[in-house]
From TrEMBL:
GO terms for molecular function: dGTPase activity. This is Deoxyguanosinetriphosphate triphosphohydrolase. GO terms for biological process: dGTP catabolic process. It comes from the Bacteria.
Length: 456
């Protein structure tokens, strides 16, 4: 008999590690999943995204997207996807409304909150930053500090993953901050929807075609917590051994789709407006996605090609939202049974054009010379910061290293003696990952003596 999960289990208002029960019972004003969204918005980790790379590292133009604006836009797209899908799910499962008081808006709020947080764990310099952290922990310089680590703990660090760092941001509370654990104390459903890769770093599954197996979603420090969430929501297990390895929460496919839509289209728009992509070619590709009826007559006349791009982008996003929602609903039973594991955007008729846009973006935008130069510098910056912080924590007898330790916020390094080496290292990566692009560069310059702080 085919194993499956149910929406009754998957949609839960239970909060992770929460001791705070003093909420209004009137959810018509502000539901539990909207509370999740609001908690993320007001978190310091979310605020830092305003100075983290999306397309161009440290852009001089105020038009170019940062991680914060990208996350906000993805959440808007995600909310629409969630509401469209939720409407159909509730029509087929009226007991969700009757027994659990789930509304169409709840689906939108869940996906919007998960989208809002989807990049919250990204280090400085984007995906290049992840590579820089991984490379440091693979280097000879890091090996003396990693002797006591298990194979899985080493893999967490040597294949550093922003998604896992994000799950930690949402669920971990530093002992120096508060005696209540649970991070932002989000609902189980929002946390599971956030987790696009519901597995630990091992085993690695080379050349897998399943999108949820390409990366991992939590560190060893949060493995037990995710396992609790998965069991509470009835996520389907992928392994019979002790590995924490599950099928996705179905709504995670909508988070992935919202991210795909935004970075494919809006990053491309940035590239066009920055002059990195040929205007005529770019507009032509955008029009191909719309595939308008040749007899369609528009009364709109554009006098600025940039405004035309904005108009095309708005129409394209609306079209892709409708089409991705339709693909999800078409494959809903397969998703619930764990037999579907591919990005929704891959099943759209316009995928060949989206792929062409992606390749053009890689060539003209992401591999633009200034981007490559800053990313290369970012490798040096993050490696230098990690090495300095590791020595400050593990070699405190040195006067030089003690001085460096004074520059690290206390809650990252003042830990109980019984804490393992792995946990100490994770706390160091928490610190480096939390930095904005500019803050990382400034700190690196100061500890290397390249730039001295101003004396007031």
């Amino acid at each position: 008999m085919l194993q499956t999960t149910t929406w009754e289990k998957l949609i839960s208002k239970k909060r992770f590690e929460s001791a705070d029960k003093k909420y209004s019972s009137d959810e018509s004003v502000r539901g539990e999943f909207q509370r999740d969204y609001d908690r993320i918005v007001f978190s310091s980790s979310f605020r830092r995204l305003q100075n983290k790379t999306q397309v161009m590292p440290m852009p001089e133009s105020d038009f170019v997207h940062t991680r914060l604006t990208h996350s906000l836009e993805a959440s808007v797209v995600g909310r629409s996807l969630g509401r469209i899908v939720g409407k159909s799910i509730l029509e087929r499962n009226p007991q969700l409304t009757q027994e659990k008081h789930i509304q169409e808006a709840d689906f939108g709020d869940i996906v919007a909150a998960a989208c809002l947080a989807h990049d919250i764990g990204n280090p400085p310099f984007g995906h290049s930053g992840e590579d820089a952290i991984s490379s440091y922990f693979e280097s000879e310089a890091a090996q003396p500090f990693m002797r006591q680590l298990t194979e899985a703990q080493r893999k967490d660090l040597q294949s550093f993953e922003g998604n896992a760092a994000g799950f930690r941001v949402l669920t971990y509370t530093y002992p120096a901050h508060c005696n209540l654990s649970g991070g932002l104390s989000l609902t189980y459903t929002t946390l599971a929807t956030f987790t696009k890769y519901p597995k630990e770093s091992l085993p690695v599954i080379p050349k897998t075609k399943n999108t949820s197996e390409k990366k991992y979603g939590f560190f060893q420090t949060e493995k037990a917590w995710f396992n609790t969430i998965a069991q509470e929501l009835g996520l389907l297990k992928k392994s019979a051994d002790g590995t924490v390895f599950y099928h996705r929460h179905p709504l995670a496919f909508l988070v992935e789709a919202a991210d795909d839509i935004c970075y494919r289209i809006i990053d491309f728009e940035d590239g066009l407006k920055l002059g990195l992509v040929d205007q005529e070619k770019g507009i032509g590709l955008l029009k191909q996605i719309l595939n308008d009826d040749p007899n369609r007559v528009s009364t709109i006349k554009f006098y600025d090609w940039r405004e035309e791009i904005g108009y095309l982008r708005a129409r394209i996003i609306g079209k892709l939202i409708d089409e991705c929602a339709a693909v999800f609903l078409e494959h809903e039973q397969e998703i619930l049974a764990g037999t579907f594991d591919t990005p929704l955007i891959n099943l759209l008729d316009c995928k060949p054009v989206l792929d062409e846009i992606k390749m053009l973006s890689i060539e003209k935008i992401y591999r633009n010379l200034p981007v490559l130069e800053i990313e290369a510098a970012g490798f040096e910056v993050l490696s230098g910061l990690l090495d300095a912080c590791m020595k400050a924590v593990f070699l405190p007898e040195s006067k030089r290293h003690r001085k460096l330790a004074d520059l690290i916020p206390a809650h990252y390094i003042e830990l109980p003696e019984q804490v393992s080496d792995y946990e100490r290292i994770i706390h160091i990566t928490d610190f480096v990952t939390s930095l904005t692009d500019q803050a990382a560069i400034n700190l690196y310059r100061k500890i290397k003596g390249i730039e001295l702080p101003r004396m007031y």
